[in-house]
């Protein structure tokens, strides 16, 4: 906003002050780009500028949906396998405890 030596209008100054008090959250486009490259993922959700020295990076948040859904599906499948293994091990442990209680009660005499 070029003011050419003019005073900032009061309503704009107040709006800027109010906006600076708001905490924004989100991703940093350069971090998203670096993370995608690090794992060899071709990600269309990052708008890389033609000239990073004069232009800005951008994010296409809608492009995040499909990879995130896929990641959740993969993690859910992994969780289900781990839960099944945990349940099986708990049953085996319970069976072993029953055997040990039987020995302690004199069942091994």
Short description:
This protein is mostly helical. The protein has helices spanning 10-20, 29-38, 65-107; strands at residues 46-47, 58-59.
Shape: elongated
Q: Helical content, roughly?
A: 55-70%
Number of helices: 3
* Total domain units: 2
Radius of gyration: 29 Å
According to DSSP, the number of beta strands is 2
Average predicted local confidence, pLDDT: 89
Q: What labels would you give this structure?
A:
mainly alpha; two-stranded antiparallel sheet; 2 domains; 3 helices; 109 residues; 2 strands; elongated
SSE topology:
Elements: H1 10-20, H2 29-38, E1 46-47, E2 58-59, H3 65-107
Question: Could you characterize the architecture of this molecule?
Answer:
The protein has 109 residues and is mostly helical. It has 2 domains: 1-59, no CATH class; 62-109. 59% of the residues lie in helices and 4% in strands. The protein has 3 helices and 2 strands, in the order H-H-E-E-H. The protein has a two-stranded antiparallel sheet with strand order 1-2. The longest helix has 43 residues, at 65-107. The termini are far apart. The model has no long low-confidence stretch (mean pLDDT 89).
């Amino acid at each position: 906003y070029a003011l050419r030596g003019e005073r900032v209008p009061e309503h704009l100054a107040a709006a800027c002050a109010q906006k600076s008090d708001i905490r924004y959250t989100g991703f940093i486009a350069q971090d998203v780009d670096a993370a995608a490259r690090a794992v060899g993922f071709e990600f269309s959700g990052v708008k890389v500028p033609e000239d990073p020295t004069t232009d800005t990076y951008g994010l296409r948040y809608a492009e995040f949906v499909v990879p995130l859904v896929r990641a959740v599906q993969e993690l859910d499948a992994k969780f289900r396998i781990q839960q099944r293994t945990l349940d099986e091990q708990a049953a085996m442990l319970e069976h072993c405890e029953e055997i040990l209680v039987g020995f302690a009660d004199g069942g091994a005499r």
